[in-house]
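Budget justification note: compute hours in this period were largely spent on complex prediction jobs such as the one shown. Inputs:
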Amino acid sequence: MADLSVDICGIPFKNPVIPASGVFGYGREYEQFYPLSKLGGIATKGTTGTKRTGNIAPRVAETPAGMLNSVGLQNPGIDAFIERELPHLLSCDTVILANIAGSTAEECAEVAAKLDHTAVHMIELNISCPNVKQGGAAFGTSCTAAAQVTAAVRKATSKPLCVKLSPNVTSITEIAKAVEAEGADAVSLINTLLGMRIDLKTRRPILHNNMGGFSGPAVFPVAVRMVWQVANAVSIPVIGMGGVSSGEDAAELMMAGASAVQVGTAIVQDPYAPLRIIDELNDWLDRNHIDSAAELTGTVKPW
Amino acid sequence: MKQDKYTEKLTYPVRGMTQLTAAAWSMVIGCPEIAQKAQPGQFVDLLPEGGFTLRRPISICEIDKAAGTLRIVFEVRGKGTKALSELRAGDTVNMLAPLGHGFTLPEKDARVILVGGGIGTPPMLPLAQYSGKNAVVISGFRNADAAILQEDFAKTGAKTVLCTDDGSAGRSGLVTLPLEEEIQAETPALICACGPMPMLRATAALAKQYGIPCQVSLEERMGCGIGACLVCACRTRDKNGGEQFLHVCKNGPVFDAEEVVW
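Corresponding output:
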């Protein structure tokens, strides 16, 4: 049994596997399958200043080795989250990364300020949602906007701040450096890639929002590449995600530079995916006589 | 699929597989614990083998608690359902079940009208088995070749009315005609329906016109199947008359027709 624990921004995680924001809601639906304490952490559903209803369905489309989604940040708002969901999540003996989003830097800062008074472990600022008209990826695709929203949130909270980056940019390393310069304690990447599918019979896009976020095993090589680039460009920890669906994937993303991994689409398919990935990672470490998962981070030997 | 201890938890034996029409298949799955819990109107979520990302939600057609089995009837619509149709007795299937919020059952002796359209007909069978002779089952299909489950409905003791679009079997035309006749003949305590959106809309409108409670089973492209990922949104009215998105997998698939924004 290898030591699976990792440390990110001084927060101890019992293992490096974290359900990604969006697929896991606020955790309740998964408690019928296993205690949430088995997870390294939970990135909660993206939460905004006020309630959002989300986009019109269809919000999902299957693709080869992946899927598109366009939920559009449906959530009950930060006050409802803090009152109804957070107390329970904090009792689950796992690290809680509260994922937040907003239409403006001010909204993001207000949400962060409200969380600052709670016992949440880390704030994950989403500047990369592809499915909303305002805010979302608009923050994450320019260095100036990414820096501004990070600075605003940084002022609003002393919690460890992780900024979740969009892959839909020319240079993700420039964005990563911009948010690091404004006080981000970590970055997480990649959010979904912008994609589209069309129904041949109706000539309508399958998603009512026309475009949506592309995720799943198909995007894993893009995630490995971007995690590697960003890990080499910044000195803050990187949380990697994008198509992770096995323990081997987790090990690979950690070698590329991730301190921990998030799992999204694999959970949509199989609620047990995070537990299987934890077991597989442990088995892989044991088979390769590696004592600690944390030793993997950034150990790729590039040509 | 790799068989680890977590996948095993979701793996169930296929007990039987029968082709009903050119497109429709009937599958019996051995799952005693799930059969004990399952309610009419709930669904199962099957992961086809062959590299598919998403599960296929299929409503439950029969619950046999004594045999410990569920029966589902589905149509081959694409590659995923094609792969499911290739399973045979002795194979296994990866399944999450029972899922969703089913029908709220009426009193056993209450008159109910069950309306099924095409591949929306199967979830009406457990209701017909429950209400027996107090049920009227009105089912509509494109033509005689597409008609399914007529013998199963007859066995329940329910009155059955078959409609086809082209008149090749039963009555010619839409299910709403016999539905209105049955309502006028004797007001039912409840109407339950599952089928294409235009049929559900028309059924809900008739129910409203006659002031009869109506429950509808809806369909939407689905993700996790358990209410976490929020993709299968259904536009509904909240208590204050505002609109909100509920989710077919958790709040549904069965909704009160009054609740749905048609």
